[in-house]
Amino acid sequence: MSGTSSSATSASPSASAPATGRTASTAKSVPRLRKRREHSAGRPKRSVLLTVLTGLILVYTVVPLLWLVISATKTQEGLADSSGLWFADDFALWSNIHDTFTYHDGIFVRWLLNTLLYVGLGAGGATFLAILGGYALAKFDFPGKRGVFAVVIGAVAVPGTALAVPTFLMFSKMGLTDTPWAVIIPSLVSPFGLYLMWVFATEAIPVELLEAARIDGAGEARTFFKVALPLLAPGIVTVLLFTTVATWNNYFLPLIMLKDPDWYPLTLGLDAWNNQAQTIGGDVIFNLVITGSLLTIVPLIAAFLLLQKYWQSGLAAGSVKE
Amino acid sequence: MRRTTNRLMRGLAVLSVLALGATACGGSDDDGSGSKPVSAGDVQAALKKGGSVTVWAWEPTLKTVAADFQKKYPKVKINLVAERSGDKHYTALSNAISAEKGVPDVAQVEYFALGQYALTKGLSDLAPYGADKLKSKYTAGPWNAVTQGSDKVYGLPMDSGPMALYYNKKVFDKFKIAVPTTWDEYLDAARKLHKADPKVYIANDAGDAGLTTSLLWQAGSRPYKVDGTNVKVDFSDAGAKKYTDVWQKLIDEKLVAPINGWTDDWYKGLGDGTLATLPSGAWMPANFVTGVPNAAGDWRAAPMPAWTKGDKASAENGGSSLTLPALGKNKELAYAFVEYANSGAGVQSRVKEGAFPATNAELQADSFLNTEFKYFGGQKANKIFADSAANVADDWSYLPFQQYANSIFNDTVGKAYVGNTKLTDGLKSWQDASVKYGKEQGFTVE
To answer: Chain A residue closest to B87 (CA)?
Structure first.
């Protein structure tokens, strides 16, 4: 859940990115102004206050991660005996990882596969729909477009959690609760992804290019797939990252939709393990919960690092116009 | 984050309760199970015919019971769904009942929450199946809890939680302090311990509805009176005063650690000697073994401190039953399983795996009483627990909306732990909020 909120906050600069981009380009095009130059990207002005603030934020974000990594090396005994930010005498990372994958007949693997399924179909599908919708809204005119805009913006403002209970009752009537569809279908809707794609497509695809393609005799589908889609690639990666993070971290929707542990995603599974500590006679496995959490965030970190290049260019692309 | 989730869950719980109320009005009255008795032959025939039973229960020992049951009746398939407990379990159960879809055939329900489901007709009456004849098998507290003061039986007691005082012997020995036998001595010991080492607290308590109600129960307070839909809430009797007098001092002098139960901090405190005692149910040893492995040998069990010297009164803390939700299917098979697990052969295998029984036969068995607890340095702790079980007063009742009441405990009584509110005032505002909610739900509340 925290991932979802962090993705939302990191997303807001993206919306304002075009504006800042423009200021930077104006600064470059007017090199005569000395004062401007000092502030330019080449020689940034140092600010003690900003450095301290950034440092604090760095500590604030890194310490929990550090705690997680260090704690994952401890046994249940070690967790209770030692300080949170330093290693215990026993180094149990490998046995913890082994136990995480084998505990309860290896249910963790099943949860991992479920999560991949939900992310693959949910986030993948959401991205696909956002591309189609965003492109259509950006490049075609039709009556009621303003209405659609209002609905989309409104939908961005409604937190998914607020819709969870009504969605549950609806899915329950359709007999879809406690099936993977109950998690996948609501994940297909990503108003924010659609909005982002819309804005991106508006900026990234020159209308002239589309017109040229049409004049050359390409049909709408061909124009979309051959001309528009490649231009949208950075935006697609961005939206895919956001929807992936949102689906990967989704907790509340599966919580109310699913009862059968065999269909749990990792978030619910880890929560169930954590809950065992609050259960009479339950097996207390904080060490596995922690190791499992670490294993759960590794793919997300990897995805961010690998796709960073596209993602950053995605945020900036379309901001500078000739 | 945890707080927000909890609040969400709380909100959802309330929502589900409302939904539950709505279905009750919608009329699940046509459930015919109340009218005609089911003969033992019907149950046997169903067992022979076979089928599947879905069980929502987190009790870990049920795994063995389900396996044994299926071995005995090969045509029956027990589908044990066992990953959730507490709030989440009830949310799922209430959601399923209000949606009238996916309701389990058997559900584990704690004693404090039973009234809520029973009253909204969410549960089948088990008396027609012969459950009413099992009364003598169970200890008074749990049986009283499943019958809710009428001739209807809403579940079979699975376990019980007669209270005991767990104490860290190593800590008490180190500071040469005697183990308290009354709550006044307890307060004294708390002061001495905290003075000897400011890091040591006599116990943790950051506001826990379960603990408070159990201690009130032990002190002789009877804040809830329930007669059908007539409910009375009153925290001003003499028993409540005994409790608030002692506990107010513990809070004022900062002698109880502000740690919530069942958190990692809590497990840590139990392990490293900073929490010296724990008043809790007899089911706790299993959690000590798995959750506090590093303090093996340090802890012992003792009878609960008395509110008046020489008084033996005890109370229950926790404990749960297996019930048959009214909308569940395969009622005969479901009942057969519940009876097997909670009254038949299943009880012994559950006790063997560390569950604390609610049945007299198991509680009085020599093998049970003479079990040496390795974790407690070889102590025969079951003798203390069995004594406690025998001394539980059976006239306690929870509210028919206790789940809701517990969910607002921290917003009312909880204030006494963090601010200048007195415990008595906190209880008063808990009372007012409970009364208000009860009236809104259509109860006649005083």
So the answer is: A275
Distance (Å) from the alpha carbon of B39 to chain A's nearest alpha carbon: 33
- SS3 readout for B357-388: CCEHHHHHCHHHHCCCECCCCCECHHHHHHHH
Contacts of B316 (CB under 8 A, 6+ apart): B111, B141, B142, B145, B160, B161, B162, B163, B214, B217, B281, B392, B396
Flag if B85 and A278 touch (Cβ within 8 Å). Answer: yes
Give per-residue pLDDT as tens, B308-342.
Answer: 999 999 999 999 999 999 999 999 999 999 999 99
- Mutating which of B101, B159, B288 best tests the A interface, going by the most A Cβ atoms within 10 A? B101
Contact status, residue A275 vs residue B84, Cβ threshold 8 Å:
yes
CA–CA separation, B269 vs B275, rounded Å?
Answer: 5
Summarised one tens digit per residue, pLDDT across range A193-238 is: 999 999 999 988 888 889 999 999 989 999 999 889 988 988 898 8
**Alpha carbons B44 and A146: distance in angstroms, whole number:** 67
Q: Which residue has 């058997």 as its token pair?
A: B106
Q: How far apart are CA B219 and CA B241, in angstroms?
A: 9
Q: CA of B81: which chain A residue's CA is closest?
A: A260
B61 touches chain A (CB under 8 A): yes
Question: What are the two backbone dihedrals, phi and then psi, of residue B301, each rounded to the nearest 5 degrees?
Answer: -110, 145
Assigned token pair, B3: 């707080």
Confidence of residue A85 (pLDDT cuts 50, 70, 90): confident
Instruction: Please state, in angstroms and rounded to a whole number, the distance separating the CA atoms of residues A104 and B377.
Output: 30
- Is A284 within 8 Å of B60 when comparing Cβ atoms? no
What are the helix (H) ranges across B207-237? Answer: 209-218
Percent residues over pLDDT 90 in chain B:
73
Instruction: Identify all chain A residues contacting B60, using CB atoms and an 8 Å cutoff.
Output: 279, 281-283
B297 CA: distance to closest CA in chain A (Å):
14
Model confidence over A235-256: pLDDT tens digits?
Answer: 898 899 989 999 999 998 998 8
Residue B17 pLDDT greater than 50, yes or no: no
CA B100, CA B97: separation in Å to the nearest integer?
A: 5
Query: Can you give the pTM of this predicted structure?
Result: 0.80
> What is the structure's pLDDT at A13?
38
Coil, strand or helix at B59: coil
Q: How far is CA A165 from CA A86, A131, A253, A257, B15, in A?
A: 42, 28, 9, 9, 9
